[in-house]
Amino acid sequence: MLKTLILHFFVLLLSLILPKAYAAEGDNQQQRFIEDAKKEGKMVFYTSVETEFARALTSGFEAKYPFIKTDIFRSTHEKVLSRMNVERKTGTYTADTVSVGEFETYHLQKMGFTTPYKSTSASAYPEGFKDPNSYWTDLYDNLIVTAYNTTRVKRDEIPKRYEDLLYPRWKGRMVLDQNEDRWFANMLYFMGEKKGTEFMQALAKQEVAIRGGRSMVTQLLGAGEYDLQIVAYWYRPYLMKKKGAPVDWVAMEPAIVATHPISVVHRAPHPNAAKLFIDFVLSEEGQKIFVQRGRESARTGLKPEGYPSHLKLAPSRMQLAEKLAEYTRRYESLFVK
Q1: Contact criterion met (CB below 8 Å) for 280 and 64
Q2: What is the pLDDT of residues 264-307, one digit of tens each?
């Protein structure tokens, strides 16, 4: 009995001491980063996020750490990956942090272009939105929904599941962006290869229009050119609706989420500034920069106004990047004619 009481006492004591010890170690680590980052004085961010958001992030970071000046290289997912590949071949090391799409992040990690770093904010992100080996954490999300024109679609016609898109009513009235091969790959994964392939074959028979540029497609939807946009990023129809456009959206499961991870670059010229930057952008303070502009954060308990919090989210499977060329071929053979 006495041994049991002593054991319980030590367990209680450890539960009180260890969190404080870990917090103190975290504070010491942060201070070391700050002191070393002062010597570095710079941080270079490679990203595919819109310039407005990239600058908002770096401006907030510079306000917090005025001794660090930031540079941004902003381009598409593919061009950022291509630039880093060229730099590695020439022995050039410019980027400190990188944030691109999940498929490009997969290739960056596989090629050894990124290095593990467990941010102090990583615990606030759910599984599926961070790498178990700390190579990346999700910087921001794009929830995939189906958007519709409210003047052309009656309330009782709104689809509730993807299979509803196969009804004759939608034939010739739907649109997809020409670059939805990643959505296609994830749908086949989450539906199952056989069921997913059968669904896509049936959907292709619905005479789906193909246009270039997802944002432009949503604008055309609002103008009444189409009834349904099969794949839209939630924030676009949501913000358009707030401004009075005749568009709305419905979320159907699997509720696929396109992620945009951020990583520390291997052999970064300014590694301590890079870690401070990642800690900042993943913190509540940094993530509010996205949320206050109507964009989505994976951080627990931090979502923009109007976000459908009831959904069971399915983060995009970055491992599908291994066979993206095959998925692209199959998608284009069905839809892009």
Answers
A1: yes
A2: 999 999 999 999 999 999 999 999 999 998 889 999 999 999 99
User: How much of the chain is in helix, strand and coil states, percent to nearest 5?
Assistant: 50, 20, 30
Could you list the beta-strand ranges (E) of 155-245: 174-177, 209-211, 228-233
Q: Which amino acid is at 154?
A: K
Q: Report the distance separating Cα 136 and Cα 152, nearest Å.
A: 42
Q: Report the topology of domain 27-141+260-291.
A: D-Maltodextrin-Binding Protein; domain 2 (3.40.190)
Closest CA to 315 of 159, 190, 133, 161: 190
Joined together, the tokens standing for residue 253 give 């499961």
Q: Any idea which of 27-36, 131-140, 218-227 has the lowest mean pLDDT?
A: 27-36
Q: Which helix (H) or strand (E) holds 326?
A: helix 324-334
Q: Hey, is 151 helix, strand or coil?
A: coil
Ranges assigned E (strand) in 108-195:
114-115, 137-149, 174-177
CATH for 142-257+312-334?
3.40.190.10
Structure pTM?
Answer: 0.88
Q: Nearest-CA neighbor of 165 among 180, 145, 135?
A: 145
Q: Residue 147: what are its φ and ψ, rounded to 5°?
A: -100, 150
The sign of the CA dihedral 265, 269, 270, 272 is positive
The segment(s) of the chain belonging to CATH 3.40.190.10 are 27-141+260-291, 142-257+312-334
Residue 189 · residue 320 · CB < 8 Å: yes
CA dist., res. 68 & res. 41, Å (int):
4
Q: What are phi and psi of 52, to 5 degrees?
A: -55, -45
Element (H, E) at 17: helix 2-40
Quote the CA–CA distance of 212 and 180 in Å, as a whole number. Answer: 10
What is d(CA 251, CA 234) in angstroms, rounded to the nearest whole number? 8
pLDDT digits (tens, 9 = 90+) for 59-68: 999 999 999 9
Tell me which residue has tokens 């819109």: 50
As a whole number of Å, the end-to-end CA separation of the chain is 78
